[in-house]
Amino acid sequence: ALFTYEGNSNDLRVAGSGDGGLEEMVEELNSGKVMYAFCRVKDPNSGLPKYVLINWTGEGVNDVRKGACANHVSTVASFLKGAHVTINARAEEDVEPELIMEKVAKASGANYNFHKESSKFQDSGPQAPVGSVYQKTNAMSEIKRVNKDNFWAKAEKDEENRRLEEKRRAEEERQRIERERRERELQEAAGREQRYKARSNEIEAQKRLQQQQEAENRNKEQQQWRAVNPRDIFKQREKSV
Q1: b/e string for 68-100 if b means 16 or more Cβ within 10 A?
Q2: Contact, 54 vs 74, CB < 8 A?
């Protein structure tokens, strides 16, 4: 399936689909447009279907448009999920069917020669041309089918992320409660220390006041005894006799 932009807007539309193979797909790429090709091919090593995403920026596209559309590549790749191989192309030599199939084979971990079949396929009967694996399909149905393959994996990933987020929040809440408890204990300890010091200062002040009063009383008594003459006491006794 081929996608391109609607005029100079950023809205994608389906440009077409076909069953003529990779050769037909390459012919549909326009050198004056930015296009995205999403196709299914057969892995020459395993025989399993593989998906190829081609980000095509024609050589005739102006630099401003190239820069603007370059920011859309990741979004398009996210929308067209399931691609095993992604190819960034500007010219026809970048999308030669041989090159595409070699990259598909390389992605599966083996070498592949487009012009020569592997020996493991020699006895399996006549082989269909590579072009036949580019199958005609409804673009949106193809996208939905690929997305469906990834739905449960994404759901499991989202659930795992949700559990991790809940765990993180619970840990943050626990740390917050523990931090508030420590701060409260420190404040209470500081309050007790302050009250203890205030009480100690009060007791010390009372002791000093009491000691001062006792000293003053002793001074008064001493002064009274010093003011009395012993001879006057004897004279007073003689007169009384």
Answers
A1: ebeebbeeeeeebbbbbbebebeeeebbbbeeb
A2: no
Tokens (6 digits) for 151: 């739905």
CATH T-level topology, domain 2-118+127-137: Severin (3.40.20)
Q: Output the six-digit token pair for 29.
A: 């790429």
Phi/psi at 237 (5° precision): -70, -40
* Cβ neighbour number for residue 119 with a 10 Å cutoff: 7
Count the Cβ atoms, other than its own, within 10 Å of residue 52: 23
Tell me the pLDDT tens digit for each residue of 171-193: 999 999 999 999 999 999 999 99
* Calpha distance 5→16 (Å, rounded): 12
Neighbours of 48 (CB within 10 A): 9
DSSP 110-129: S--BTTB--GGGTTS-PPPP
Residue 177 has which token pair?
């409660």
Q: With H, G, I as helix, E, B as strand and everything else as coil, classify residue 41.
A: strand
Which whole-number Å values give the CA distances from 38 to 26, 91, 121, 164, 198, in the listed order? 12, 17, 27, 34, 82
What is the maximal distance between C-alpha atoms in the chain? 165
Q: What is the pLDDT of residues 115-153, one digit of tens each?
A: 444 433 333 333 333 333 444 444 445 555 555 555 556
As a residue count, the chain comes to: 241
